[in-house]
Fold this sequence. Notes:
By secondary structure, the chain is an alpha/beta fold. The chain has a single domain, classed as Alpha/Beta hydrolase fold, catalytic domain (Rossmann fold). The protein is built from eight helices and eight strands; from the N terminus they run αβββαβααβαβαβαβα. The protein has an eight-stranded mixed β-sheet, sandwiched between helices. Helix 2 (97-110) packs across helix 8 and helix 5 (199-210) packs parallel to helix 6. The longest helix is centred in the first third of the chain and has 20 residues, at 3-22. The N and C termini lie far apart (148 Å).
Amino acid sequence: xxxxxxxxxxxxxxxxxxxxxxxxxxxxxxxxxxxxxxxxxxxxxxxxxxxxxxxxxxxxxxxxxxxxxxxxxxxxxxxxxxxxxxxxxxxxxxxxxxxxxxxxxxxxxxxxxxxxxxxxxxxxxxxxxxxxxxxxxxxxxxxxxxxxxxxxxxxxxxxxxxxxxxxxxxxxxxxxxxxxxxxxxxxxxxxxxxxxxxxxxxxxxxxxxxxxxxxxxxxxxxxxxxxxxxxxxxxxxxxxxxxxxxxxxxxxxxxxxxxxxxxxxxxxxxxxxxxxxxxxxxxxxxxxxxxxxxxxxxxxxxxxxxxxxxxxxxxxxxxxxxxxxxxxxxxxx
Length: 333
């Protein structure tokens, strides 16, 4: 082999070696692939905090066949109810439940003082109709005639103002609410108390003059006796013409500002409707009948107006109606 041939052969070997180093032989191994970025875990909103619940309370749904509407009953059972399975309790029914029910429950626990201040009782709050605004529901259910105020406006779009279904609502209480309560709770249905304010007080007057024995006791707060040109005075005359007795225990109260005082700059006085005067006139008429079974007393509570007076009314009313036996003797009338 010549020197040139040898040199050429060496160069070829060197080139092949360099080529083999730069490109290694193919392999069956698969090169690792970078892992795909994992999605971030979904952020879930924390659960809402629990609603505030009143101890000793229940809510019952009640569909009325008489009214064709759905209502709720708010129920408060006194301390010791479960521990005394043979005991029965007086039962208080109150209208305007969203406001009045928690208020009376608190008064029962505070003023009641575990039976020392007031006798323990079961409380039933009568709700507004489901789907109705409070104003619409109470205007319809608590008033005795369809002749509402001339200035009446509906707060439910597409629905005209509606009044005058008190009698149907009274039947709902007597024929549907009473049996439900009597069958589910240990209540003394011979010691039923009604409580209502404003139109709720007017509803109480309607029941008093329609079926006074429906309740044994009535707490009538600021009854709207001006409704429909004082129609309840006409109803009272009709009742007196055909009845010799009105068996009921009635406590009626109003605020001192629920009268008219044109000379006073205090805006808490009424402009035109003297509710105090109307209530006092109604009481005088009832007393003039000398019904043997009627016990009625009333009071005007100073420094209270139509919107502030109900807590004081219900406190005084409960003290009159549910005084413990060992404290009785202080109330008169």
